[in-house]
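Figure 2 data, in text form.
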Amino acid sequence: MVLTQRTASSWACCGARTVHDVSPEGLWIPEYTYPDAKHLYTEYRANALHKPEYPLVVIVSGSGKLELERAIFRTPGVRTAVITTPAGRDELARAGTTKLDSVQIHALDGSGGTIAPLPILRLLHLQFGVRILLHEGGPTLFGQFLAAEAVDELFMTLSPQIAGRQADAVRPAFVQGVEFVPDCAPWFQLLSVKQNAEHLYLRYRRTARHPSVS
């Protein structure tokens, strides 16, 4: 699957923790990211890409413990698919998802409450015709997709601001919960660099091996 820009993608995927870490009003749709370009996004998706007005938002939660009062579950026109385990499906049913018209629940078997990336991709392809998927994390789910070799392109923003961390601070890394040794670590080839003020926007494509190896 290809991770690509939100405007071109018809499906955006993220983990439950990422949903909880953003504003309760957060929506994974173009106009929420850049409201001033709402009409441009709508026209481009409809006339150039021939896609629905809003992308399908896919949330992965093994436990099914989601805050259903959030806007992403209650905004008319924004479709949300929650991929969970059978236990998570039961939890969501008890929480009242059956009353939310725009939310669909899909249960997959998981090991220890974790759902593997490839069954997720198969379900999205068969149920929704997904061919391009935008993955927006968090680091644990993204690491699982990297380990499954299910990431073809990577978009990264480089900001000139340093956060740092205290010695006892718990702050997720770019990839969490999986470690790659040099011989099998994912490598990416730089495709383009764009600049806006002091920010750099980097686009990479995954390579089969270290680019220095001929």
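Caption note: The longest strand covers residues 187-196.
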